[in-house]
Fold this sequence. Notes:
- There is one protein chain.
- The chain is an alpha/beta fold.
- The chain has one domain (about 10-270): Ribonuclease Z/Hydroxyacylglutathione hydrolase-like (Metallo-beta-lactamase, Chain A).
- Helix content is about 35%, strand content about 25%.
- The chain has helices spanning about 50-65, 75-80, 95-120, 120-130, 195-210, 225-245, 250-255, 265-270; strands spanning about 10-15, 20-25, 30-35, 40-45, 70, 90-95, 140, 145, 150-155, 170, 175-185, 215-220.
- The strands form two sheets. It has a seven-stranded mixed beta sheet, with no helix packed on it.
- Helix 2 links the parallel strand 5 and strand 6 (about 90-95).
- It binds zinc ion.
- Zinc ion binds near residues 74, 76, 181 and 190.
- Zinc ion (ZN) binds near residues 74, 76, 162, 181 and 190.
- Keywords: Hydrolase.
- InterPro entries: Metallo-B-lactamas, NDM-1-like, RibonucZ/Hydroxyglut_hydro.
- One of its GO terms (molecular function) is hydrolase activity.
- This is Zn-dependent hydrolase, glyoxylase.
Amino acid sequence: MTEPPEPAPAAWWSEIADGVLVRRHRELDLSTGLVIGTRSCLVIDTGGDHRQGAALAAAVRERTSLPWAVVYTHAHFDHCFGTEAFLPCPVWAHERLPAVLRATASAQRDQWSTHYRDEGRPDLADALSASRAVPPDRTVTDHVEVDLGGRTVVLEHLGRGHTDHDLIVTVPDVDVVFTGDLIEQGAPPAFEDSFPRDWAALAAGLAERGSAVTRFVPGHGRPVDIAFVRTQAAQLRTLVEHAAALGAVSYAAEEGPTHPFGAAVVRTAADRLR
Ligand SMILES: [Zn+2]
């Protein structure tokens, strides 16, 4: 008799450097992060609802008992609606995030609850509907260093890109950069709230800051290297240049290799380039 296959886990850790972990989530292929110091730890993004957040908090507690702080890479629900389980704790974000969260949390909840219901996943829809968007109590303008004991992490806003308030989180002692959705692996970048021209330049700058050994952790998908970041930066530049040359509307109507992310994604990007 053969054993039934083990169900695939909903989420799993991989330790990509000493005390630096990535938690991959099957839902939306989200990647969250954990950086462990000697006095405290930092959790990078909290998942898309209160249940995912509680599961993440429990998973962090299996790795460390140190006090934690949370940082949001940006205000999209899948990155920040799981925070309740971590409270009370410091919550970091870019200074524009609180206003964005106030303006969009309820619409995000409605849009994605409907999406999950339409997909036949009422449990996810209910969990999202019951999740509170927790605002940060510490904000970053450009650059903040957070001392975890034995190591410092850097929270930085490099300009507009995937949103107008993206933060990256760098762990200099092991050359790891958590990029949020400024870089995506396994799916095209998402342009709904983006600033494509700024984003193309920002992504090129991000690649320039790295070296052959830098690991970049995207907001979705697996950790990638500098070659991947360079490629994504070039794709963003291609998109922006063709949209400029042809006009955004004709470009979106076109098909072919000048569409690095596919026509539907380019249409959304083109809307943001008008
Ligand atoms: Zn996003």
